[in-house]
Recover the amino acids of this structure.
């Protein structure tokens, strides 16, 4: 037999962590996902438009471009598993949660429509998990931890790391709940499996988020002092 | 768009395209978190085929499966998602201005 062609390895690349393909979830669960995602995106659109300043549109475009590109890069983690940046917490920290939901929804929608990454029927659930649950959880954890910076300045970095880690875990737990509700995998199996496998992926998410925020601080510190930081 | 905003957009696009060119072709082919669980728990084969395929698995049909295909697909995605998000942001701002104006006028029926 011929040696393994490195190209066949590349061929299998760009797999979707957490992007649910069609077939993993039942029709009722997928439909509920569409309804919940639609409601969340409408709420996000209504709240985001009050806060958009001149700078918001280009920053949203840039975030969508970066998060899309970063999601193509699967890095190996323990046990022959790979993961990639989700970006929900990073987007929420820079844009606030509502604009971040719009950005993440655009990424997930394009991935499903053009790249067949995540199913079409499951696109509502993928939007819910990756664009809504991850953003809101990451944002809430970030804000809670960030308020502790009066006690210690390291709290700001811990907040970004913790928010990013939790955003991945929350999306993984939501996916496990949807798999269980669909009868695909019982909750007592799916929940620990999904939460466990995403522990190291979440740590990588935290580190990349910290690094990306560091780059933003070095390049355009004004973006971190944006009005999106206040009034949310 | 102001010069500062154009610089932001251009710089951000360059960074995203650098990620696509330098990192995306080296993406790990190992199963991801959900795929790992699906394989371990035996529901991986339930995954359904997509009804249509445009740039499946981040490759361009006809360009093959190599790095060039991944980079081309990624570049298309970066441009498309940026355009989509800029349109969404523009629509949101236009809408907020319009609804803001409507809020100022007295509601119908009030004399």
């Amino acid at each position: 037999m011929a040696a393994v062609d490195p190209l066949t390895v590349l061929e299998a690349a760009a797999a979707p962590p957490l992007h649910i393909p069609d077939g993993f979830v039942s029709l009722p669960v997928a439909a509920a996902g569409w309804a919940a995602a639609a409601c969340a995106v409408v709420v996000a659109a209504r709240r985001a438009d009050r806060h958009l300043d001149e700078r918001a549109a280009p920053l949203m475009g840039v975030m969508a471009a970066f998060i899309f590109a970063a999601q193509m890069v699967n890095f190996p983690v323990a046990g022959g598993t790979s993961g990639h940046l989700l970006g929900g917490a990073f987007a929420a920290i820079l844009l606030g949660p509502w604009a971040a939901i719009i950005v993440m929804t655009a990424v997930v929608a394009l991935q499903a429509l053009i790249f067949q990454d995540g199913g079409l029927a499951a696109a509502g659930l993928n939007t819910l998990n990756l664009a809504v649950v991850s953003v809101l959880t990451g944002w809430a954890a970030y804000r809670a931890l960030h308020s502790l910076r009066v006690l210690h300045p390291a709290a700001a970095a811990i907040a970004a790391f913790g928010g990013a880690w939790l955003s991945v875990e929350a999306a993984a737990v939501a996916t496990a709940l949807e798999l269980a509700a669909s009868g695909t995998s019982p909750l007592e199996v799916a929940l620990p499996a999904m939460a466990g496998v995403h522990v190291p992926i979440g740590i990588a998410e935290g580190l990349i988020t910290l690094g990306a925020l560091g780059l933003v601080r070095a390049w355009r510190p004004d973006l971190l002092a944006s009005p999106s930081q206040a009034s949310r | 768009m102001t010069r500062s905003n154009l610089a932001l957009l251009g710089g951000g696009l360059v960074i995203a395209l650098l990620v696509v060119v330098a990192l995306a072709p080296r993406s790990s082919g190992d199963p991801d978190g959900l795929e790992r669980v699906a394989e371990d728990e035996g529901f991986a084969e339930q995954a359904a085929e997509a009804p249509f395929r445009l740039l499946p698995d981040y490759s361009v049909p006809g360009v093959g499966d190599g790095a060039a295909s991944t980079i081309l697909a990624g570049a298309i995605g970066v441009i498309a998602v940026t355009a989509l998000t800029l349109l969404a942001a523009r629509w949101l701002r236009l809408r907020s201005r319009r609804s803001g104006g409507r809020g100022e006028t007295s509601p119908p029926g009030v004399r």
Remarks:
- Residues 187-219 of chain A form the longest helix (33 residues).
- Residues 38 and 124 of chain A are 8 Å apart (CA to CA).
